[in-house]
């Protein structure tokens, strides 16, 4: 299997600024998710929870999901086209959390902000211009190099 040619810095800069905004949003979501997973895991191990095993398993599960989110952020930073789909999926989950906070928990103000972040990131990530820019960058990476 041949290794893809590295993209030049100018190729990475050719991605729309909105993609960098979406990358920042997903990175922030990742930090919050990993932080919550670690908190839940550590509080379940070292604290006095009612259901220790449940807290440990939920924390470990969320930690695995957070590591997947981290891989998505790394892919986005590198301008990889595959990173767009998991980023959209992450923000669909964020949108669901926002909806639950608005309707289920009664925290409508916080829920509205969370839902708006999810909708905004999805709106950026589904734009055809972003898809075309990622495809162009992918094609540049795959182009044979003279050497």
Characterize the structure shown.
Helix content is 78%, strand content 0%. It has helices at 9-13, 17-46, 52-77, 84-103, 108-125, 128-142. The two termini are 19 Å apart. The mean pLDDT is 87.
Give descriptors for this structure.
147 residues, mainly alpha
* Secondary-structure-derived class: mainly alpha
Number of helical stretches of at least 4 residues: 6
Described by strand count, sense and barrel closure, the largest sheet is: none
Task: Label the overall shape.
Answer: flat
How is this structure best summarized?
The chain has helices spanning 9-13, 17-46, 52-77, 84-103, 108-125, 128-142. The chain is mainly α and 147 residues long. It is flat and about 60 Å long.
List the helices and strands and how they pair.
Layout (H helix, E strand, L loop, with lengths): L8 H5 L3 H30 L5 H26 L6 H20 L4 H18 L2 H15 L5
Helix pairs in contact: 2-3, 2-5, 3-4, 4-5
